[in-house]
């Protein structure tokens, strides 16, 4: 599993190591360049001093020494071991690096006049003023050639090139040493910092882990900007889960309460049919049992529909035509109106393009029209119309039934409330379904009695995006 802590530690360590390595490399290259310039300056200065000393030497002693080597005691007091593996440290007698410096003095014709005791007899480089590189005994030598304008003599001062490389390597290693020593300490500090920084997340995890599954109370707020959105979303999720569980419990209680009576009635009628002694009583009991079964089926369907709508937070909208949907809904309910001899009319000439959920809109209009049919007396009239307003579509469903008592109008949206329990066989869930379906479409539904008698339902749906 991926670990944020390991990712942060590895990432920071990689970045820090890369930056330190790059900085050390740049420092090494820069130090090497500056060191080369310093060595060259020192070599040129040594050449000018040596030139002056050799000039004085030739003026005082006109005879050249045997083998051309002057100052034979130059390196006498140095440590005996001058090998490359010697401990290159300063001593009271000098430094071992002195044996890696020498000079040659030539006349204008290129004849060797003087040299240091360990200098070779052959020229290292051509006699040209300035810096150059020569090779003697498997070693590269950095040289500086200087010509005396008065005597036309050429002086070549040389220094072993590996001395410079050795010093540059030591400087580079010493430059790397502090970062290498500091890296473990830095890693330890980073580990502590990351652990301390992730502590609020660990506390949040522990708080959630200690909770009982039934405890859906909000999590305590953490004073951490990065965790505040997470805590808010978790609280929102637990609130939604709590609401869903509450709706489920409410649905269970309502279903148990509402189904108890029709099932008891159904049981009584079936028992009466079983104990009936003649065919007439048996058929009458079976007919009543069928009515009770029909009512129970309708109640179950409405309860399931209401439960689905309660758990639905949003809908998937599709383009549709409200006029066509109304015509299909009216056509499906027309047989109920014809059975009661009612006049069911629809005035919806425009197509009314709309975006919504066809099934839910069918439930919305179907329940309103079904209620009008059920509570309107035989031979009654039910008029349905669709008009377009500036920003809304308006659907009116008007009947000439008994209407609703004014004191009952505010309670019509309550579940299982029936304004006229003596009429119809509804369960009191139709308008609750209507209200929920309308809310999911940002629609507005209002019911009011009309002065001429009857009830009118007005559904106002937004024409634009909703």
Automatic annotation (TrEMBL):
Its EC number is 2.7.13.3. One of its GO terms (cellular component) is plasma membrane. It is a multi-pass membrane protein. Residues 195-246 form the HAMP domain. The keyword ATP-binding applies. InterPro entries: 2CSK_N, HAMP_dom, HATPase_C_sf, HATPase_dom, His_kinase_dom, HisK_dim/P_dom, HisK_dim/P_sf, Sig_transdc_His_kin-like_C. The lineage of its organism: Bacteria, Pseudomonadati, Pseudomonadota, Gammaproteobacteria, Aeromonadales. It comes from Oceanimonas baumannii. One of its GO terms (molecular function) is ATP binding. This is histidine kinase. Its main location: membrane. Gene3D superfamilies: 1.10.287.130, Histidine kinase-like ATPase, C-terminal domain, Sensor protein qsec. It holds the Pfam family HATPase_c. It is found in: Membrane. The keyword Membrane applies. It is an enzyme of class 2 (transferase). Residues 254-465 form the Histidine kinase domain. It catalyses: ATP + protein L-histidine = ADP + protein N-phospho-L-histidine. Keywords: ATP-binding, Kinase, Membrane, Nucleotide-binding, Phosphoprotein, Transferase, Transmembrane, Transmembrane helix, Two-component regulatory system.
